[in-house]
Amino acid sequence: MITTNLATAKQALIANEIIAIPTETVYGLAGNAYSETAIKKIFELKQRPFYNPLIVHVKSAAFLSQVATDIPAAAEKMAKNFWPGPLTLILKKQPNIPDLVTAGKETVAVRVPNHPTTLNLLAQLDFPLAAPSANPFGAISPTTAEHVDNYFKNTLSVVLDGGRCEKGVESTIIGFEDDQPILFRHGAISVEEIEKVIGKVRVRTSGNDTDVSAPGMLSRHYSPATNTHLTDNVGEYIKMFQHQKIGLLLFKDTITDNSIAHQEVLSPAGDLAEAAKELYAALHRLDKLDLDVIIAERFPDNGLGKTINDRLQRAVESE
Length: 319
Ligand code: TXA
Ligand code: MG
Hints:
Largest sheet: 10 strands, mixed
Shape: globular
CATH superfamily of the largest domain: DHBP synthase
Number of strands: 16
CATH class of the largest domain: Alpha Beta
Oligomer: single chain
Bound molecules: threonylcarbamoyladenylate, magnesium ion
Structural class: alpha/beta
Number of helices: 11
CATH architecture of the largest domain: Alpha-Beta Complex
């Protein structure tokens, strides 16, 4: 049920139930990070393989040391600059974090989400929340309570409504190898912004389906059910699919062509942050239209354009 009642949300979590929570990036499926019972339920609900670890959400940077240890100076610096916010750090885990959360790894993913409702909820709990994005494994991430409700109508007792997600794409993930920062997943904070704070960040190249040391890197992800293509040349693809029911996902401008069934323009003003915010909602809408094909325009390869291209690329990969 969609609700704004924090007390119900809190009670459910204390009873080891799973609820949906709003964050500034996407909605999460949250449970007590210390409870194996709760964590198992998250994996079951999401139909997520146990080898793919979860992010732990803490109430403030001061609680980082409760879940992680041996924290590099650059991580401290990023936490200070970007938390609460859409940055996830992969750090050495504290022993009290269940193996189920980290998929048996020695590292844990942690962040402080920047959403008033969820920060308020966390402040009332004496445990952190493990939460993956609130979509079935491989599906498009939810950026509204209604998206979550459509996925999990019959199974979630509480979908905590915090409105539309401000950022609209997942957090940026940074890990470390020999104390050197590495970008594991493009996200709501651009690499350029992070480099302003800690200097050069190496970008981990995309892994394959068995390489889960690279988070968010399972190739098929964020996928609409509709056949989807990503291209620099939308016109060419329109020709290729002529006489079919076409939906377009575009950055700034619509295309003048009466044969197109539906067009989604993410930011008429050409603002990448606005485009990121609209991305998943537009994909959800397109996917509901019984189209034969979705043709997505490739975004400029800088700032949040990189994050958008990354998600679109994963949306088009075949299984
Ligand atoms: O914005 C976000 O990050 C959202 C909100 C709800 O916080 N959460 C999210 O969670 O996107 P999820 O589970 O959909 O993606 C988390 C990614 C996964 O790809 C997982 O493989 C990776 O983080 N991950 C988690 N723990 C890890 C670890 N110890 N080492 C490497 N990767 C890890
Ligand atoms: Mg996800």
